Amino acid sequence: NHKLFGESRSSKTFRPKKNIPEGSHQYELLKHAEATLGSGNLRQAVMLPEGEDLNEWIAVNTVDFFNQINMLYGTITEFCTETSCSVMSAGPRYEYHWADGTNIKKPIKCSAPKYIDYLMTWVQDQLDDETLFPSKIGVPFPKNFMSVAKTILKRLFRVYAHIYHQHFDSVMQLQEEAHLNTSFKHFIFFVQEFSLIDRRELSPLQDLIEKLGSKDR
């Protein structure tokens, strides 16, 4: 019945996958990441491969997480509506208001689908910006790359948090929970490895994060 869900999806919420050019060094890195993920040891899989550039490793993984979240959110978009999710929240204690610093400077309160649309569009614009995410060999990453990557990951986390808090029933109905958990666990281990998201920002899913981590000690 996956087909059914796919067809009713609005094309606007489901963004095209951001592709890493085949044959490029970043593509090789992505392949390496996929291969080590297959080994089942996630703590090891997220570590910087020997001799690799940290910025590039973070860039490749950020693109990959964007694609994963895009796909995961795409499976539940029909349940995330202006009516069901009139605010962007992660449980009763956390509510997010959108601002990107350029088009919307003062944070605005909006529905979850609108917030996630703003967020994913904003992330895609960053990923498509060659000065921020250079895809050509030898083009250096900008000095502010790390802070941009941190902001992207902090915002992508909010989509996971919203899905877990508001849509986990739908995820289970679709039998996507293993997929969601694996993706989130990979994401969390990655941001923990390089201290990319402030602990405070992670608090909406703190219990889950501890649970995922304790299975691996």
From TrEMBL:
Q: Where is the composition biased (Basic and acidic residues)?
A: 1-10
Give the superkingdom in one word. Eukaryota
Q: What does the entry list as the binding residues for Zn(2+)?
A: 80, 85, 162, 167
Q: Which UniProt keywords apply?
A: Metal-binding, Zinc
**Region of interest (Disordered), residue spans:** 1-20
**InterPro entries cross-referenced by the UniProt entry:** MOB_kinase_act_fam, MOB_kinase_act_sf
Name of the protein in question: MOB kinase activator 1A
Instruction: Record the organism.
Output: Gouania willdenowi (Blunt-snouted clingfish)
